[in-house]
Specification:
37% of the residues lie in helices and 17% in strands. It is built from 22 helices and 19 strands.
């Protein structure tokens, strides 16, 4: 006999329909799964057999063929267990005739335990969003009930295979998925810019970076406050918008990191260790999964000790820093993950960290310094909008009572600059100056009188590239927005140039 059930699968962070076709034919007992299943799907045989029997049903001792259509798309994950098991029950006549009507308009998602219980799976939210507008129903494990409720799909949840079978036979009712959804939430701030003593120049640079979503490189000796500033940087950014929150939550759902029943409302802050591999940073694997750059989507990616990352990992940042996405290619498929993040990188001027220090002597050899700096290539440095040099902390700064601005005050100015940009761009470029296209750059960043001389000097005498000049104009636009100026002024250009001094051929040598 033939039976069909409906489920969903993932390609990247987007779901697509999968028809689970089960055919039971006379012959020697066998169990075959076709339709490009991965190892987890193939292993469903043992889970399904045990779950069906432990749920009080006889497992058919016949030739069973399971087809996951469309057959040309790769299927991965353990959530196919439930639709396969229900299809086997339907094909073997264990369900009543009225059950087929429910099966036809219901999507089933869930991993089976050997005793027939249902276990939660990753990626429920993006899968359900793919059928949100179809007016269908879905059944998920109890552990995914709150996440399913976020999708807006008509969902029910169950604890076991037997409970769903009884529901299909009309003997029980399943419980509806519901949750008190908060579109965004704000946790109490743990870190405040007021705690950072001194470093006025760095604070100003980070305010500009937050206002325009510009990438930042912090360079300074140990103890200057690079990590301290970076950890407080997220407090300057506003909560995510509804669409941004949904897209970010989809990424976390695919990775199994989503908070139950919530859209992620705060911008992510990811801080991978410098020993991370390039695949873990960018994303990949035999069954591709989002990397740290995608988990930082719409948020902050902090890379401390930047040159200590492997050369492959650093160079892999070129694509996401330029196109705000990551393409993971495999033999049979190519997956695209969004990766529009704000990079905050920190590094020492040399391996020991004390090159150019007023009181500490550098112990590095010229060769060590050269190798250390060579890890940060010109193309990567070119893609970072703002370069900030931090000065060593002196006793006067250290002993002073913190009296600087709080993160809240700075965040208010940043929010005002964001509103200006939203009005300027609308839904384009995510509403930030850092993402301006070439056409928008010419339209919104017209140079004021006298600015051409400044930029010509930057290119001819300091060796700035064309991309560097574009970055200067974008940063200038943000400085003007913070000042409430509709036009870019010459002083805005001059200040922006100060944040590109590492583009000079001897930029790092002067630190």
């Amino acid at each position: 006999m033939l039976a069909k059930t409906h489920t969903l699968a993932l390609r990247g962070i987007d779901g697509f329909d999968v028809n689970t076709e089960i055919y039971i034919a006379p012959g020697l007992p066998s169990y075959t799964v076709v339709g490009l299943p991965d190892a987890a799907v193939k292993e469903s045989r043992d889970r399904v057999v045990a779950a069906v029997r432990n749920s009080g049903y006889d497992f058919p001792s016949r030739r069973i063929t399971v087809n996951l259509a469309p057959a040309e798309k790769k299927k991965s994950g353990t959530h196919f267990d439930l639709p396969i098991a229900l299809g086997i029950l339907a094909a073997s006549g264990k369900l009543e005739k009225g059950a087929q009507a429910k099966i036809n308009d219901t999507y089933f998602i869930g991993e089976l335990a050997l005793d027939g219980g249902l276990r939660p799976v990753a990626g429920v939210l993006p899968m359900l969003l793919a059928v949100k507008d179809k007016g269908v129903r879905a059944v998920v494990p109890a552990g995914n009930a709150e996440e399913a409720a976020v999708s807006g799909v008509n969902c029910c949840f169950a604890d076991s295979l037997s409970e769903i079978a009884l529901w299909l036979n009309g003997k029980v009712e399943l419980r509806a998925c519901s949750v008190t959804l908060r579109d965004s939430y704000k946790t109490e701030a743990k870190f405040d810019f007021r705690d950072v003593k001194g470093q006025i120049f760095a604070k100003r640079a980070l305010e500009i970076a937050a206002a325009g979503f510009h990438n930042v490189l912090l360079v300074g000796p140990p103890g200057a406050g690079k990590s301290m500033l970076a950890k407080r940087f997220g407090g300057l950014l506003p909560p995510l918008g509804k669409d941004e929150a949904l897209e970010t939550t989809k990424l976390y759902s695919v990775s199994g990191l989503v908070a139950p029943g919530r859209l992620i409302g705060e911008r992510p802050f990811r801080e991978p260790h410098h020993t991370i591999s390039d695949a873990a940073l960018i994303g990949g694997g035999s069954s591709p999964r989002p990397g740290e750059v995608s988990l930082a989507h719409n948020g902050v990616l902090f890379l401390d000790e930047f040159p200590e990352f492997s050369r492959a990992a650093i160079e892999a940042l070129r694509e996401p820093l330029e196109s705000w996405k990551v393409t993971v290619s495999r033999v049979r498929e190519s997956v695209v993950y969004p990766a529009r993040f704000l990079l905050v990188a920190a590094m020492n001027p040399c391996p020991c960290g004390y090159l150019g220090h007023p009181t500490r002597e550098c112990t590095c050899t010229p060769l060590q310094i050269q190798k250390y700096r060579a890890k940060i290539s010109g193309p990567i440095l070119d893609r970072i909008d703002i370069h900030v040099q931090l000065s060593p902390m002196n006793y006067t700064d250290w002993s002073a009572v913190p009296d600087g601005e709080t993160s809240g005050l700075i965040a208010e100015r940043v929010a005002e600059a964001h509103l200006i940009q939203k009005k300027r761009y609308g839904s384009r470029n995510a509403g930030f100056n850092a993402f301006m296209s070439s056409a928008e750059l010419r339209r919104f960043c017209k140079m004021p009188s006298g600015a051409e001389t400044v930029l010509r000097t930057a290119m001819d005498r300091l060796g700035f590239s064309a991309r560097s000049l574009d970055k200067i104009l974008k940063v200038s636009r943000t400085i003007a927005d913070l000042a409430g100026s509709s036009e870019i002024l010459r002083e805005h250009i001059i200040e922006a140039v100060q944040y590109r001094l590492l583009d000079k051929a001897d930029g790092l040598a002067k630190i």
